[in-house]
Amino acid sequence: MTNTRLGQGPSLEREYGRALGWYPSRWRRTHGSAMLGTLLDVAEGEGRDRPAHGELADLRWQGLRERVNAVVPADVRALAASIGTGSAAGFALVYLLAVSWVPWGPPAGTAWPELPWFGPFRNPGVLFAVPVLMGALAALVRQRILAHVSAVIAVLGVVVARITVQATENWNGPGTTTLVTVAALVVVANVGDPRDRRALGVAFAVVTVGLALFAGLQLPTGHPFESTLFTDGAWWGAAVTPALLGGTGVLVLVTVVGLVRRRRTDIAAALAVAWMPWALAGTITLRYFASEDVASLLMAVGSTAMALVALVVARRVPERFRRERA
Questions:
Q1: DSSP state of 116
Q2: pTM here?
Q3: How far is CA 66 from CA 2, 70, 72, 243, 267, in A?
Q4: Distance between CA 125 and CA 39 in Å, rounded?
Q5: Which of 111, 124, 205, 271 has the largest count of CB atoms under 10 Å?
Q6: Roughly how many angstroms between the first and final C-alpha of the chain, as a whole number?
Q7: Alpha helical stretches, state H, the chain
Q8: How many CB atoms are closer than 10 A to CB 275?
Q9: Is the distance from CB of 296 to CB of 258 less than 8 angstroms?
Q10: CB atoms < 10 A from the CB of 37, how many?
Q11: Which burial class, exposed, middle or buried, applies to 180 when counting CB atoms under 10 A from its CB (0-12, 13-18, 19+)?
């Protein structure tokens, strides 16, 4: 095939070539020539000497997706997003009920009268909690665009909540730990298509029941089920404690290793990626709530290493094995 025969000139081939440069080098070595030939053939058949409208942008977008897939396979991203969506919704629900709203608690002015309320809520956590829950519901009914729109609204809610806390000097937060954790959960929930309803539901149930149980037990205080009000700080100090996050991290590590040994590498990598927001929360709480600098460092380094190793192993599994297990 030559440009002279096509009558298209070298500019069209150069434009397509630059767009294909957005693809990973391994992909270009394997598919680049065939893809370029197909693009030129289609242009010739349509009598074009320029790319079609939006064609180059679509090629670049697909190239970026291939680069992401080269690092985190699409199946892993979809499963991690499903787990992340469920765990984000579980966190949002329990935080909304136990800290931000507390519908069973005393009315305004009868407890913590100096607390600046946010309408009927005790802090502006509702600004991100409700969009996160809406995003999970959208994912359950397979409305992917609505789920991503809800994620954008949730991130904006995080920003507005932070501004509101600073403006009102609301000591009930949400504080930095909560906002960073929620933002990280939203990011993981949107790394792929959260199409696995079972993984989403299981993650939601585990996180919701676990957080609600520990919020009620309040193990560090020794007074289970006695307090009806949580401050944002008490949420991390008496409910989602550093010890809880550290113990859960060890359990996740054991599970990931077991899955890798059983060649369930996609699930192992997805779980390791979905754990990262909680690892971030554990790193922060161990450092600033428990003053455990070494444990905080171990949490950060260990969780990151676990995710990287799991992803490397998942990428090395032949594609046909992943298709057989799907």
A1: -
A2: 0.83
A3: 28, 6, 10, 39, 20
A4: 50
A5: 124
A6: 39
A7: 3-6, 10-20, 25-27, 33-45, 55-71, 74-95, 126-140, 144-168, 176-189, 197-217, 232-234, 242-261, 265-288, 293-316, 319-325
A8: 27
A9: no
A10: 13
A11: middle
